[in-house]
Amino acid sequence: MSEEFRRELLSLFLQKNKEFKDFKKLEHISRTMSWSGSRMPILEREKNYLMSLLPLFNSVELLEHKAYVEKQIEYIVESIENEKKKGLFRKQRLSEFNLTKESNE
């Protein structure tokens, strides 16, 4: 299902039901996925999608919803930072491995 379609469905849902407890039960980002290589593109896409939802919460009745989505965005930003650190660590380890390998030859 496209992100645009999911956003439209969420908008319709919020027009009919502003209950936070019901909103919280919805799956806003996919929890089951597989990938090869870096998770960065997936995390960036999730962050951008959630940020695109924020304009839907521009009313007092939806402040709790907005705070919830903003918290999810914060978690993703933290995950992005962790992935960057892992990538730098992997590059450093690979570089060290290559230097060690070259000196042994």
Annotation keywords:
0% strand; 4 helices; 105 residues; mainly alpha
How are the SSEs ordered, and which strands pair?
Layout: H1 3-16, H2 20-25, H3 40-53, H4 63-104
Helix pairs in contact: 3-4
Tell me the strand percentage band.
under 5%
Number of helices: 4
Give the total of domains. Answer: 1
Q: Flag low-confidence runs.
A: none
Mean of pLDDT: 86
| Straight-line N-to-C gap | 53 Å
Instruction: Sketch the topology as an H/E string, one letter per element.
Output: HHHH
What does this structure look like?
The chain has one domain (3-104). It has helices spanning 3-16, 20-25, 40-53, 63-104. The radius of gyration is 20 Å and the shape is elongated. The chain has 105 residues and is an all-alpha fold. It contains four helices and no strands. Helix content is 72%, strand content 0%.
Quick structural overview:
With 105 residues, the protein is mainly α. 72% of the residues lie in helices and 0% in strands.
